[in-house]
Amino acid sequence: MTKQYEAPQQRLIARINRGELSRRDLLRQAGALGGVALVGGALASFLASCGAAASTPASGGGTSASGSPTAARRGGALSWAYTLIPTKLDPVWSGSRTDGIVLAQMLEGLVRNSRESKIEAALAEKWTISEDGLTYSFHLRSGVKFHNGKGVTPEDVIASLGRSKANGTYKWTLAAVTSMDKVDDATVKLTLNTKVASFLPGLAITANAIFPKEEIDKIGKDEFTQPIGTGPFMLKEWIRNDHVTLDKNPNYWDLAPDGKAYPYLDQLAFKQVGESSTQVLQVQAGSLHGSEGIPWSQIPTLEKDARGQLLAFPQQQTNFLVLQVTKPPFDDLKVRQAMSLALDRQVFVDRATSGKGEVANSFFPKSATSWNQSSTLPYDLDKAKQLIAQSKYPNGHSGAKLQLTSGSQIGRDNAIIAKDMWDKIGIQLTIEEVEGSTLSDSWYKQSFETISGYQWTNGMLDPEQHVQFFFVDPRMQTGWQPSQHATDLVKAASQELDPDKRSKMYYELQDIYNDDVGGTISLYYTPSINYLGPDVKNFFRTPLGVPFYRDTWLAK
Description:
Helix content: 25-40%
CATH class of the domain at 317-525: Alpha Beta
CATH superfamily of the domain at 317-525: Dipeptide-binding Protein, Domain 3
Distance between the termini: 53 Å
Structural class: alpha+beta
Radius of gyration: 24 Å
Largest sheet: 7 strands, mixed
Strand order of the largest sheet: 9-10-11-2-12-20-13
Number of strands: 22
Number of helices: 17
CATH architecture of the domain at 317-525: Roll
CATH topology of the domain at 317-525: Dipeptide-binding Protein, domain 3
Shape: globular
């Protein structure tokens, strides 16, 4: 016996055909699905019989950024600033949040994360799971084309997932897959050697996006610099350390509420603007349409400024400091424990976020599945001093660099506060601002000593991504080596299907990480703060931090 999964649209249309839904019920349920566009003969004939046009509530494309109903406008080019634009355009090899945001606009997998933070159909319109949970059969959506015009085939799926399984940061998501087989011209079967609780959420991440087989054959293990996907936007130009420009995909398969294909925009440009305050000024001047990472101290003023819109979205994000534990003095566990104890996190919340953040107690975001509310990251300056006296560096240490991305206000604020607190236990660091791509390269190569201003935002609707990144690979590039018990616990949790038992394992892993100070020191949790020009409408960012730019449109 198999379980079958299909898109919400298909389920509603099936109920229409069976005569189970009135027009009022249909519209209400469509609205509950976030305004999904329901199209096709079944819906058109159903609404026509009720004397109505074939349309649905337009939550996806028919609300403004402030939420008021209005008619969506098509066309225009949206410009958006980040402190650092992508340094990589290959999801297999990237671990950067901004890389993921841009790649998510171009690439799609068999399934994807919805606006409601659920797994939904993407290139596979439906799938079945065998009763033993070891065989997944994905039925590909008909008529989907890559950006180069080629249709998506089972061979593309197998080649793409084969590359992801063999290489890169997220190969663990496919580690249990023993075979990938073409069943027919529209079906792919994946066979696992064990049940994996996070299998479908893992398929939804961009690392498991589908590329043309010919492109996979050409690139091999090397990095894509001109990725060809199936997403609503496609790459036009990438100038490193300056901008990435995406054009509308004229052949995109998914339909907006107006019955036409997403996206509304003709073009989407990501610009690198290093100074957070400069981003604000450019939005107000009209040379930018939006940005994220607004200086917290400016929020009270910006809330009253008619030149822009300030939007906050709940987000699974943790702000932290990074330590390279292979370098002195961070190679001593007692020093790392002392550095964590010396930080009064409430001061960071009050000063760095103007009271808008919340003290962190774990490397897990508070809103994440299996966050441990009982974990602790206490402030105890006396104990911190005692640990330094007991360490390999009883007289403290000086000379290590605390680096941050040049222009990052949050990185600067965190660094200044941390330095002041660490000075009190004899760990004296020198603050240094570094160009964003240079610091990112240093992080990947593990050549840094300490970093301020980095954040973790979950990119997957399952806690396994979090523990894989922090405990297994790449261990946040910190050089930390967890115990065998911790590594075994990560594996056991990935295979445990009982939610309560699984959560208890993740609770223990959070406590282990806090005790070992495994290379990152969590400070606080924050929402996503976005500053938009007045013409930007229907902007939305998921709790995973990914904007739905396909839904966004410009009033003029």
